[in-house]
Amino acid sequence: MIDLKDKKILVTGGGGFLGGHVIRALLAHGAQEKDITVPREGEYDLRKEEDCTRAAEGQHLVIHLAAKVGGIGFNQTNPGELFYDNMIMGARVVHAAHRAGVEKILLLGTICAYPKFTTVPFKEENLWNGYPEETNAPYGLAKKALLTIAEAYRAQYHLDAIYLLPVNLYGPGDTFDERKSHVIPALIRKIADAKKKGDNAIEAWGTGRATREFLYVEDAAEGIVSALLRYDKSDPVNLGSGMEISIKDLVGLICRLMDYQGKIRWDATKPDGQPRRRLDVSRAEREFGFRAKTDFEGGLAKTIAWYHASLAS
Amino acid sequence: MIDLKGKKILITGGAGFLGSHIVRVLVGRGVSESLIVVPRFETHDLRKRSACEAMVDGVQLVVHAAGTTGDAEFHRDHPAEIIHDNLVMGVELMDAARRAGAEKFVAIGSATEYPENAPLPYREENLWTGAVASSHAPYTIAKKMLLVQGQAYRAQYGFNAVHLLLTNMYGPGSETRKGFVITNIIRRILGAQREGKAYIEVWGTGQATRDFLYVADAAEGVVQALEAYDDASPVNLGSGWEISIRELTELIARLMGFEGEIRWDKEKPEGPPRRMLDITKAERAFGFSPKTTLAEGLKATIAWHVANSQ
């Protein structure tokens, strides 16, 4: 087990939604604020080799969270950008970490790396058995290639590179920007807007039949830090909560929590995305004792409260 | 159909085995040598973004045939270099080409991109059914990502990126690629003849079958695709037939006048039992039709090795 005291830690994407929570978890596990580096946009472009070299210099640990992401709409219109940014950033960050002689690097994959059709719950050993859901394939595959990179650097250079596959995250601090938001913040925003305007109906994408698993962001951060401290193998590990809910039930639940009685109009011409998503979370528990703590309704209530507070401020 | 005359064409790996044959085919099509750009590693390290940008400047067409690869031992000992070099080189080159306004990008991929469990003969729609062989995964995944990138760039930017899946190649000049089966057999026989040995040893049982494409035919196929194939889906380039390693070895021995014994070392690995590409898509899409018979191709290859052996 790694002692975080006196470790210099680079957290790419540390200014993002998940990153902020990961930094908090690092501090709670003994890291010191002065030892954590977050490469800020404007100062560092991690698609560039020299910026990665500069960021990795003198670091002991690297957590690579930086990613270009979006919801289905953004994924459909920007596949090239999503592929290039994620692929080149990952390849260059790992290479720079190796050159800088870091002790360990944690890479974050995504549930979008899984095949569109695979047995539920998704098991790590089935990761390569099929093509991902088309709308997020360029993003999912670029992230999946980071696993092969991690394995290759471990094999050739003995770099302790580990790879996690988190499910869809939600929680305070999420992106509510319409263009890039994922389903939970998008729905919260839509309902809040409808309530404000007095609309008695909202529109939702797809049929509502697709299912998703959600992991509360603070739990995800705790899982990431646990893996950093205790996991040293090249096998990928799912990071999830093990729950599964249909989009239809999700909408119902958020409406109830936000006290909205309007109608839901399902726009079935819009894509559902992957039909079902739920991870097998047993490997994370076995390998580094991770288990998500937050119940879904409680997590949603906190997220809604955070959104209202962010509007007020 | 693109008329290649008057186009400025970048051939990465243009000094290599396949690349040099591609250059020859282009010249045969009337492309002026002054318009063919072949980057040299000493001056242009394509793992650097700046080198990619310099190379694509003013170029209309790109054939990306460069790659870091080698024999099984090289793949075992250098996986990180292999994935890093191939991935960074390809991804940056394609992105630089798109930004510079190139008209078309042809990526040279490999039959190793097929999963270990893909049904035979390999058909393009079965590229994603399972994991690729772990022994070559770093190379294979780097190449496969160029297919993903090309498809994503076509969708977002309308960029004309094409991906070809090439089978094992052989032909004159293959000495730079250690570990290729035909090269190995020829060299062993040459060695036995030189030393007066009455036998050669070959790895495996000889029962495994492979598909071999003569390099000049492969180069012709690449140029045909450059001229006439404009689709996101990948295309196989193979010979359309398969041969067992045993028959192949016997044929080479006959062509070289070697009458000694062929000893099969059954303890040694021989890789997957069969490998063969279905080439009907390439035939249909751009009239690909490999012309060289195995005997003709082997004769030319043997002659080259005889001339170039010390």
From TrEMBL, chain A:
- Keyword Oxidoreductase part of the UniProt annotation: yes
Q: Which residues bind substrate?
A: 190, 205, 212, 272
Q: Active site located where? A: 139 (proton donor/acceptor)
As its record notes, the protein acts as a catalyst of: GDP-beta-L-fucose + NADP(+) = GDP-4-dehydro-alpha-D-rhamnose + NADPH + H(+)
Q: In which pathway does it act?
A: Nucleotide-sugar biosynthesis; GDP-L-fucose biosynthesis via de novo pathway; GDP-L-fucose from GDP-alpha-D-mannose: step 2/2
The residues the record assigns to binding NADP(+) are 13-19, 143, 166-169, 182
User: Pfam families under this entry?
Assistant: Epimerase
Q: Provide the leader sequence positions.
A: none
Q: Where is the NAD-dependent epimerase/dehydratase domain?
A: 9-240
Establish whether keyword NADP is in the entry.
yes
Q: Known EC number(s)? A: 1.1.1.271
Q: One MF term from GO for this chain?
A: GDP-L-fucose synthase activity
Functionally, this protein is described as follows: Catalyzes the two-step NADP-dependent conversion of GDP-4-dehydro-6-deoxy-D-mannose to GDP-fucose, involving an epimerase and a reductase reaction.
Of which family is this protein a member? Answer: Belongs to the NAD(P)-dependent epimerase/dehydratase family. Fucose synthase subfamily.
What's the protein called, per UniProt?
Answer: GDP-L-fucose synthase
Q: Which organism is it from?
A: Candidatus Liptonbacteria bacterium RIFCSPLOWO2_01_FULL_53_13
User: Gene name, please?
Assistant: fcl
UniProtKB/TrEMBL annotation, chain B:
Query: Which reaction(s) does its UniProt entry say it catalyses?
Result: GDP-beta-L-fucose + NADP(+) = GDP-4-dehydro-alpha-D-rhamnose + NADPH + H(+)
UniProt gene name: fcl
PANTHER family (UniProt xref): GDP-L-FUCOSE SYNTHASE
Residues bound to substrate are: 188, 203, 210, 270
A single GO molecular function term of this UniProt record? isomerase activity
* Coiled-coil boundaries: none
Q: Where is this site: Important for catalytic activity?
A: 110
**So which domain of life are we looking at?**
Bacteria
Keywords for this entry?
A: Isomerase, Multifunctional enzyme, NADP, Oxidoreductase
| All copies of domain NAD-dependent epimerase/dehydratase, residue ranges | 9-237
GO terms for biological process, alphabetical? 'de novo' GDP-L-fucose biosynthetic process
Q: Which residues form the active site?
A: 139 (proton donor/acceptor)
Protein name stated in the entry: GDP-L-fucose synthase
Q: What is its EC number?
A: 1.1.1.271
- Sites where the protein binds NADP(+): 13-19, 143
> Pathway, per Swiss-Prot/TrEMBL?
Nucleotide-sugar biosynthesis; GDP-L-fucose biosynthesis via de novo pathway; GDP-L-fucose from GDP-alpha-D-mannose: step 2/2
Give the function comment from the record.
Answer: Catalyzes the two-step NADP-dependent conversion of GDP-4-dehydro-6-deoxy-D-mannose to GDP-fucose, involving an epimerase and a reductase reaction.
Record-stated family: Belongs to the NAD(P)-dependent epimerase/dehydratase family. Fucose synthase subfamily.
Provenance organism: Candidatus Liptonbacteria bacterium RIFCSPLOWO2_01_FULL_53_13
